[in-house]
Amino acid sequence: MKKKNNYLNFYPKHIAIIMDGNRRWAKKNKKLNFLGHKEGVKTVKKIIGLSLKYKIKALTLYAFSSENWKRSNQEIKFLMDLFQEILDIEAINLKKQDICLKIIGNINQLNFSLQKSINKAEFLTKNNNKLLLNIAINYGGRWDIINSVKKIAFKIHKKLLHPDDIDENMISSYICLNKIFPIDLVIRTGGEYRISNFLIWQIAYSELYFTQTLWPDFNEYDFKKALNSFKRRNRRFGGN
Residue 2 class from Cβ within 10 Å (0-12 exposed, 13-18 middle, 19+ buried)? Predict the structure, then answer.
């Protein structure tokens, strides 16, 4: 008898997505930028649902990079208010769906009200285990590595570590997402072919998938296409 859902064994455990194209979607559809971001939120909810459907264990979404502060004050305020609104509204739904929420990035630079909403949502969902949902806000891969090095340097200063103790495993242990599944697949929407300072340490051996589809238009067909592409990869991790 054929095993049910055996195909799921070939899917990645951990997917990271660079959600690109909200503003271009708005321009293409002759709408204001903020409507593109709102439409992008709808796609986030769809992809979370699809991750549950295809039994993905961890999903990491690049919501706001450390470089995004270069945008207009009006857009930044809108995005920060939108993040907080979503956290306040959706935290209960995440708990009901057995989804654990974790925010990664330099949270200390965010306004106090948003930090409070983050802490509340994380606390509410901390015991859930069906899906680990990581949202990167004010995150940059270089910041992540520098932050890790600073923590190690502090321990060396306190004579808790010796410089000779530093190796790849030690740095990895201080980096974001160090306690969960490695990232198997990185998806970038919007037609750009770069990583944009996203998890640059963590994705050294991740499979990369790029699509022209703008994030608000990214749907189950596109998601399944990325999963099927992953299934065809021959992952050698630097070996033969």
Answer: exposed
129 carries an active-site annotation:
no
Question: Residue 240: what pLDDT?
Answer: 60
Contact indicator for 104, 72 with CB cutoff of 8 Å: no
Question: Which of 68, 147, 197, 219 does the annotation list as catalytic?
Answer: 68
**How crowded is residue 190: how many other Cβ atoms within 10 Å of its Cβ?**
21
Which tokens is 158 given? 């306190």
Of the candidates 32, 16, 47, 14, the one whose C-alpha atom is nearest the C-alpha of residue 217 is 47
Would the pTM of this model clear 0.90, i.e. be above it? yes
The answer to whether 164 touches 190, Cβ cutoff 8 Å, is no
What angle in degrees, to the nearest 10, is found between the helix axes of 73-96 and 33-53?
Answer: 20
Task: Please state, in angstroms and rounded to a whole number, the distance separating the CA atoms of residues 204 and 145.
Answer: 13
CA 206 – CA 181 distance, rounded (Å): 12
Structure tokens belonging to residue 4: 């049910």
Dihedral over Cα of 99, 90, 72, 191: its sign: positive
Q: Is 68 a catalytic residue?
A: yes
In which band, very low, low, confident or very high, does the pLDDT at 4 lie, cut at 50, 70 and 90? Answer: very low
Name the active-site residue from 5, 20, 138, 184. 20
CATH numeric code, 12-140+183-231: 3.40.1180.10
